[in-house]
Amino acid sequence: MTKPIIGITQGDPNGVGLEVIIKAFEHPLLYDHCIPVVYANPKSFAFYKKLMNAEAPAYVLVKDISEIKGNQLNLIACGNEPIEIQPGTVAEAAGNEALAAIDRMLIDAVAGKLHAIVTAPVDKSNIRTTPVFTGHTAYISKALGVDQSLMMLYNDDIRVGLLTEHLPLSKVPESVNKDLIVSKLKLASDSLRRDFGIVKPKIAVLGLNPHNGDNGTMGMEEKDIIIPAVEAAKTQGVFCFGPYSADGFFGMKSYKSFDMVLAMYHDQGLIPFKSMAFDDGVNYTAGLPVVRTSPDHGTAYDIAGKNIASPLSFSNAVFAAIDIHHQRHNTDQLKANPLGYSDLRRERFRLEQA
User: Which superfamily does CATH assign the domain made up of 147-283 to?
Assistant: First the structure.
């Protein structure tokens, strides 16, 4: 199988994005499995190599993806003007550079020139877009023409999907509705089959309120919305169960009995997940035409520029993108041109033999 072309965005130049990219590609192992294309300001890339006193990786500056080659780090320039890099600082110029890398990468992704994309962390507060930039997931989904996607974080032990993503907590209850739950469950089930090779994925659904609302004394969302949604999803072939009270579910490690957990809001799912998988977790966006992953951490301003950031989560994100691309390809190949089925096929064969 040919090596997939992986597009990689630099992230916020004042965060740890370029540091973990450089550390990940210092080792030749990744080049055996993919052709990496980094979208970055070459001057920012060079700044971090010098700061880290890193001889590797060497890179080749290319103007277009048609010029890339294997067994090397290819870099497509996203602005050549140097900015004042101040590790650990929130700056509008850094946000502009991060967005420029995303937008340049999306040109190639929309054109179908990338097999997968890996995004380094950005700071949502310093990226100016209309409507307001709420994160990679929504921004990339819109650019790729996808109305519905699913933010899923995972490692070898657990997968957590989010019904709602970067919303103020006060807006979560009004956003939880039956149609959204059903569509996210269907999307999750399809992705687990196609992208992870799970034949019959088993999905747990969490409740919204403490103790699942205690039969309505602390909220009616479970009775009125979540339970009907779970039952409706089952009629569409989704193997799902719940709702479960989040504290007891994670406290008793019930997630080990499921292939994915659907949380109602960001912190409900990601606090327990990051408690278990902060160093090695991967953020995956299900439902996109191109595979997209990212490390599960943010810009880590507190350690930016100190050359102590771990590249493990970023490296895992690259390997995850490669694995999911191959799994998706294999699944699609297996489903292509299936043999027709007929209840009478065996009987006709017997008659012909007779």
Answer: Isopropylmalate Dehydrogenase (3.40.718.10)
Percent of the chain residues topping a pLDDT of 70: 94
Q: How many residues does the chain have?
A: 354
Find the mean pLDDT for residues 15-40: 95
- Topology match between the domains 1-146+288-354 and 147-283: yes
pLDDT, residue 46, reads 93
The domains of the chain are located at 1-146+288-354, 147-283
Task: Provide the token pair at 166.
Answer: 């970067």
Q: Contact at 8 Å (CB) between 322 and 4? A: yes
Query: Which amino acid appears at position 343 of this protein?
Result: D
Reported as a pLDDT band with limits 50, 70 and 90, residue 354 is: very low
CATH code for residues 1-146+288-354: 3.40.718.10
- pLDDT value at residue 340: 62
- How would you classify the pairing of strands 282-286 and 150-154? antiparallel
